[in-house]
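Collaboration report, partner site 2.

Our partner group contributed sequences for two proteins of shared interest, and the home lab folded both. The records are reproduced in the order in which they were received, starting with the first partner submission.
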Amino acid sequence: MCLALHGLPRLPSKKGLAPGVVYCTDTYPPQVNGVSVVTALAVAGLRARGWRVAVVAPRYPRNPPWRVRQFVNDFGNPDLRVALPSVAFPPYPDIRLAAPAYGRIARTVKEFQPDLVHCATEFMIGRLGQVAARRAGLPLVSSYHTDFSRYTEAYGAPWLKSTVSGYIARFHGRALRTYTPSQMARADLLALGLRDVEVWGRTVDTKIFHPSRADPMLRLLNGLERKFIVLHVGRLAAEKGVERILDAFRIARGLLPAGSLHLVIAGGGPEEPALRRAASPDVTFLGVLDHRHELPPLYASADAFVLTSLTETLGLVVLEAMASGLPVIATPAGGVAEHLRHEENGLAYPAGDVTEMAHAIVRLCMNRHLRDRLAIGARQTAEGLDWEGELDRLDASYREVCVAHNARARLHGAGIRPVSTVPRSA
């Protein structure tokens, strides 16, 4: 873990304060999703590298309704956490809609005295964070985690795609640098006219997610010790297409000896009631699990991981499964395409083809040699993604942005027009 500043740009001292960043995000633990996980890990990593970190996020209920499932633990604790009043989004109660409390955000920026502001989401808090950063004269960076333009098709409103894309372009166009977890997502942003886009965050904690976390008691207590367990982890929302996994599971089950296959689904969301109604008795729903304590042994105790989403900019669950030694069955789309290698660490199938998904499940169930070989390849893929190194890169990138911003401000103050930057390579 790098705590020294050797080789890193030095920032001007603010009354002896360590460098600081304010995160403005519309999702954060205890809410559960890939964005909240990556943001919390970044917060923890930056603090370990000497940064002061404040987080402005929605306030979450201490005793959420039974429909809303959250993390048990709260990792990524910042130096300062500002919780804005929020209400549940009726169609998806796990999501909190924050109040437009610009004054709280602006006051946080003023009193915390950060060196930059990072807007991690494109909604209310992220947008107001941009306004606060601009008015304070601070450098602003952003994150692009989710391809909302493609979500419009999943929710039956494809005519909104260009409108959503335009908003995404304007939002990230205000940032000096945008971080996104895959080359494909970066290409999408460049096509929208953005210039400084850095691929960052395509990694996984290979110590927490590890094959050694397998727990035979999980299978024994649930009567699954002799079954082939197919696992899916993720939000149960329309854009994830989890109903296709149920369809593929039915086909696979019909091609295998009775009682040899079991599907486990971990996660929550608005589609959960419908999915439960459509599932057979040999499908187990676990709801949202604790990310650090419950998920790792679940991954490591399964036999294969299946994903059907086509909108992932990263696919963090795919990397967690690979780190746990699970062969992955998925479509090589979006960020998943950068890690899934057919016949090396998993099996690829065409988008939406439930029959091919089913055949992949059957192949792994019937061929132990193939399963073991792909499991080794999956773990090797994950081991090549170093989280500590990625956090070092974020530390250096922040400093670079701050130094460049301060240099431009000095030139502007002297009446000199700065030379525009060239697009960032990666």
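Second partner submission, folded after the first:
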Amino acid sequence: MSADPGPVDAGPPLVVLVGAPGSGKTTVGRLLAERIGAAFRDTDADVEQVVGKTVADIFIDEGEDYFRAQEREAVQHAVREHPGVLSLGGGAVLDPATRETLAPLFVVWLKVSASTAAGRVGLSAPRPLLLGNVRSKLVELMRRRAPYYEEVAELTVETDDREPGAVVDEIVGELARAGGPETAMVGHGE
């Protein structure tokens, strides 16, 4: 990656969100960051900025292996540099080095059913891994990734039939119960 590395060792994220496409990582992440007075960052956006293409175009032009290498590096940078709320791309947990990096962090798996996720991403979403039958592709992605989401998550939050604010409330409540530096920020907008 050739982008400005930003601040070095700014601290680990307060919360890392993982989950399948359509689980609500970006929506919930932005709301959560606002609620706890922290910044929001998305590693897919980081990759797009560095490469200069959308994730879809990277997959089409460069291939999945290239994207995953860029994603792995983006996660490593973000974990060192972003002391706020961090959202990872849905497949980031497939990488063993990424799972190891996430081990000491407060990771929340936003769990969603394939039918809800399909409704959220749409049937014509520009997501290369979902080309064709979106619902069946999501079922397969979720089946393959679920053990990794479960492995890295300290908290699992169901997002089906829930408003993003209710999901944020659950995460904030868990942060408060867990104590530590996260609770000092809860309710303080900066």
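Feedback sent to the partner group on the second submission included the following. The domain at 15-42+80-176 is CATH 3.40.50.300 (Rossmann fold). The two ends are 30 Å apart (CA to CA).
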